[in-house]
Structure formats: structure tokens, C-alpha cells
Design goal:
Keywords: Kinase, Transferase. This is Nucleoside kinase. It holds the Pfam family AAA_18. With 223 residues, the chain is of the alpha/beta class. The chain contains six helices and eight strands. It has helices at residues 52-62, 88-102, 116-120, 140-148, 158-174, 192-216, and strands spanning 19-21, 24-26, 33-35, 40-45, 68-71, 108-111, 130-137, 183-186. The strands form two sheets. It has a five-stranded parallel beta sheet, with helices on both faces. The longest helix has 25 residues, at 192-216.
Length: 223
């Protein structure tokens, strides 16, 4: 078995657009079908400075029995760090990585700035039963203060801060109308533990609901 789900374990062909039919991956070259774990992905998003990097390590300890918490920026390097709008190569690589991690049986919580249009249109989206989005946001002045207080090596100058403030405003305005919609959580006046509590409850609640739905199966509520 090959961990990279884009590669057929029978003929070795690498799919540019993976196919999933009836819960099985299908090779377009040799028609081989094979099972895989199609789990939900949890995207903890929002502007830089809203609390993702602070929440992530604490969340990893809270969810150690249930999910894998990973930081998006670890792959923000080399050829993946380009100027193409939406950074599709970077996003695709993360979806492939998350799908491989899912084969170990636990879903991934990905901490990083992303919006549904940047994931939902990619070919690798078929590896997941769903992607759920929760955005940590903040009031503009609080966000500005946090970003400008960061170490110099992170290169947060005024121009870059303004871009992030625009993203923060855009996300709060557009979140309800996105497909799927993005849930918002304002961290401006809350302690870190409150944010961690909220994200943990969000992940556990969604997973409990999904497991209940699977246990009931189609038509279980009928009669």
C-alpha cells in the first residue's frame, strides 16, 4: 500500500485528479480500486495574530486522544512559497499530507490561514469526507497591536499588517456566505484558555455528530 493517495498501488500511476467512487480510490490508468480512510479535515483558520499559533500547542494536548494538530507554516518554504494567487501548490501539498496522516486513523486539525475557495476547488479535496472551517478573528486595533509586537524576524511591517487587517475584515464579512460557511470566534477580549475550550468543543462536537450519523446509517431514523 502507498501512503500517497495520488499514487496507484497497483500500477504506480500518479493521478493529477484523483477519483473516488463508492468510497474507493480509482486509478484512471489501470482501473484498480483500493480502500482508504476518508476522514474529515478541520481547518482552524483566521488572520495572523488572532491566536492560531497560541491555541495550537494547547489544543494538541487536549485532543491527543482524538486528532492530530499540525501547523500549516511548516511547509511554507522553497518552491511552495510562490506568488500565485491562493498558493495552490502549497494548499495541494497540505491536503495530500493531511490525507496521508488520516490513514493512521485520526483526523487532522490544520492551523493556518486558509479560506474555503483555496481548498474546496482542489483535486485533492476528494480525499476528505468534509472540510470544516473555524476562523479565529479579532478587532482591528487589537490585531494590529499583536502583529507589530512580533519579533523582527517575522517581518511584520505596516504594509503587511494592513493586508492582514483587510483579510480579517473580509473574512468576517464573507464567512457566512462561503461554501461551506466559516464559523467565526472573536478572541479580542478572551483569555487563551477560552479560545482553546471553544476550538476543542467545536472539534469534539463535530466528530461526535459524524460518528452518530455513521452509526445510524441511511434510513436509520425511519419508522
Amino acid at each position: 500500500m502507498v501512503l500517497d493517495l495520488k499514487i496507484c498501488p497497483a500500477c504506480g500511476d500518479r493521478a493529477e485528479r484523483p477519483r473516488v467512487e463508492s468510497g474507493l480510490l480509482v486509478c484512471a490508468e489501470c482501473a484498480h480500486r483500493w480502500p482508504f480512510r476518508q476522514l474529515p479535515l478541520f481547518a482552524l483558520t483566521g488572520p495572523s495574530g488572532a491566536g492560531k499559533s497560541t491555541v495550537g500547542p494547547l489544543l494538541a494536548r487536549r485532543l491527543g486522544d482524538l486528532a492530530l494538530v499540525v501547523e500549516q507554516d511548516v511547509l511554507w518554504t522553497g518552491a511552495l512559497r510562490d506568488d500565485v494567487p491562493g498558493h495552490p501548490a502549497f494548499r495541494s501539498t497540505w491536503l495530500r499530507m493531511a490525507a496521508m496522516l488520516h490513514q493512521n486513523g485520526r483526523p487532522v486539525v490544520l492551523c493556518g490561514t486558509v479560506a474555503p475557495p483555496e481548498f474546496e476547488r482542489l483535486p485533492e479535496r476528494v480525499f476528505f469526507s468534509g472540510i470544516h472551517y473555524l476562523a479565529l478573528v479579532s478587532e482591528p486595533e487589537a490585531l494590529r497591536k499583536r502583529l507589530l509586537a512580533r519579533p523582527a524576524w517575522r517581518e511584520w511591517d505596516e504594509e503587511r499588517v494592513e493586508e492582514m487587517l483587510e483579510f480579517n475584515e473580509w473574512l468576517q464579512r464573507e464567512a457566512p456566505s462561503m461554501e461551506p460557511p466559516v464559523e467565526l470566534f472573536d478572541t479580542t477580549h478572551l483569555p487563551v484558555d477560552a479560545a482553546v475550550d471553544h476550538v476543542e468543543t467545536w472539534v469534539r462536537g463535530l466528530l461526535s455528530g459524524l460518528r452518530l450519523s455513521q452509526a445510524q446509517g441511511p434510513g436509520a431514523a425511519a419508522g
